[in-house]
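--- STAGE predict ---
source: upstream dedup step, 1 unique chain passed
mode: sequence only
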Amino acid sequence: MKTLAVICSLLALFVVPAMAPLMAQDQPPTDQGQTSSEQTEPVKVKKTYETPKFEISAGYSYRSFYSKDLTSLGMNGWYVSFDDNLKRWIGVVGEAAVTGENQGITPQGILGDTHVYTFLIGPEIYPLGHRKLSPFGHIFYGAGYYRNVTPIYGGYLGQTTTSLTRLWEAGGGLDLNLSQHWGVRLVQVDFSGGNFFPNSQNYTNRVMHRVSVGVVYRFGQR
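--- STAGE serialize ---
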């Protein structure tokens, strides 16, 4: 019995400590570190859009024009504008637009080629500043130029009629920023007024409207 007790004592002193590391390896690892890493998500940095110093926009324009005989004429053309941003929410814009339509010779008569040119300047307001989607509104004032050219036909010598008048324009639109410099003018809608025919009894062309789309390039920093 004494021999058995000695053997058990030796096992307790040497074998059990030797087996302890092996027993520890069989234990399932704790998931505290894993859970902590899984719960930690990368911080999302909100993208900001700095106010550019200058903006240039150009694109397509459609104008609805009413002639002195009270007929409606749809005109296609282009526009270009230059914006100097004075503040985050306001700038000064100069804009030029050219639209026209060649009606040529019709059963109603010789209507010719008609163009309307506008050269305007005024304030543009960004109520939300410059961001991913930037709405804006403006009021412009300047000059409008009307030109109609009728061709020579059937003994008719043809003629050119022109008119220059003061013009106002009010409207707005929505820009989509794609990058630091480039954006898209999703839409711009304008209403303008000017009387190209002051001697006409109908007093037409008091109000026209124009719809534009285009691209925007921004540079500099306010």
